Structure formats: C-alpha cells, structure tokens
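Exercise 7.
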Amino acid sequence: MAHAHHEGRLGVAVALVSGIVVAQVVGSLVTGSLAILVDAVHSLTDVVGLAVALAAAHLASRPARGARTWGFRRVEVLAALAQAVLLIGAAVFAIVEGVERWRQPADVRAGELLVFAAIGLALNLAAALALSSGRGANLNMRAAFLEVLMDALGTVAVAISAILMMTTGFARADVIAAFAIAAMILPRAGLLVRDAVRILMEFAPRGLDLDAVRAHLLAMEHIEDVHDLHASTVSTGLDTLSAHVVLDDACFRDGHAPELLDAMSACVAEHFDVPVTHTTFQLETAGHHGSEPELHP
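Solution. The predicted structure, written as tokens, is:
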C-alpha cells in the first residue's frame, strides 16, 4: 500500500515537472536566455529521474522469488545512481555553454523571462509539495524530492537574473544564473553517487560500528569468538548483518544455543544507533571453527 502511495506522488510530480520542461523550452526560444535553457535541461533530467523513480517504486513492490532473493528492492539504488549521472551531464552542459555565452553575451528579453520563471517556480513548488511527505521513505523518494526542490532554486536564480537585467541592463546576469544552477547541481549529484555507491559496494550501514558489535557479542556469556562479521544495506530501511559465532561446546549439549541466538539478535537490534533486525548467525563449535579453510574479520 505504501509503495502505491509513493507511485501516486511520483506520477503527479512527473506530470508537473513535464509541464515545467515545456514552459522552459518555450521560454528559452522566446527570450534567448541561457539560464532558462539550462534550467530546462535540468528539469528534463528531473523528468527522466522521476520516471525512473516511478518505475523503481513499482518494481520494488514486486515480491522476492526464485533467483531474486531480495526481489527488486535494490532498484531504488540503481535509479538514484542513474539520476546522479544525468545531473552531472546537465551541469557540464551549463558550464560549457556558459563559457561561450560569457564571451559573447546574447540579448535576452528579461520581462518575458521573468514570466516564464514564475510559471516554472509555481509548478516546481507544486511538485515538491506532492513529494514532501514521502521524501524520507527511501533513497529513491529522497532523490526525487531533492531534484524538484533544487530545480525550484534554479528557477529562482533565473528570476533573479531577469530582474537584474531589467533593472541594470547587465546582460551577463543570465550566464551567472546558468553557472549558479550548475553549482547547485554538482554537490547534490555527488551526494547521490556517494550514497548509492556505498550501498552497491556493500559497505557497513552508515553509523554502525562493527568493532562495537563484535565487542558486544564477545561480552556475552558462552561466546568464545566472532568472525566473518559482515553488514550491508540492501535498500533504504533494510540493513542486514551476518556472523559466525563460536560457542562453548556445552551450549550444544544442554540446549542453551537457541537462547543465545535470541540474545544476539536482540543485542544487534537494540544496542546500537543503527538497529539491524535482519540477522543471520552461524553457530559453531570450536572444532568447526578450526576446520574452516579461510577466516575473514
């Protein structure tokens, strides 16, 4: 049900941002503004990113089966990475075109530019409002919300440049606005790349100290060693942890092992800033531990 709710919000955002692209393309043709053209490319990138996010939200709701043991939960991460690549391309376009326009400033119809900027800003704010309540649901929804919000800031830059050209006649204000949009795009794209790559590389969830996890487990009675300790994120809200745990032999004779398994699961789920509820512990005797061909930290 939650996935369907996100899909509805993303669908509304796609429709609104598509309207922004049309308005900005028309505005660039009417006014000759580089800034609104760059913002149109940015908005078009947003449409593609939002469409990918919409497809990812649908695929993520499909159940796990067969070889797809996690279903399509990680599609949201791939979608966020694709959006980041598209944003970087838009920023590069803005910089290259901006350098050329700086050398040869174009005549821009500032009054009409302000009108088109106002239309784009209104549609951007409507799209951001549609996505705002779901932005914390997952990486994909957060990426979509940030794209729309930052595009709104880009439109504000276009409006400011139009006002400056109307009041001072400074033609390069349009180019400065284009550079400002590029400057807003690149850091956001970098953050999306960082978060997506961290998940795809299966690094430990941010904020989870595996040394502290190991220490907590080793402090429990009857646990002799913890090795092959791994933690990763499948998708937003789904962190996993696995470990090989060596118990003293008596635990397997007196039936104490199941109690320790429950205690370890509770420890990982309750004692850390990043609770992990999806855990897999392989319980071993000291003899089995010694027969393993290779051990990992």
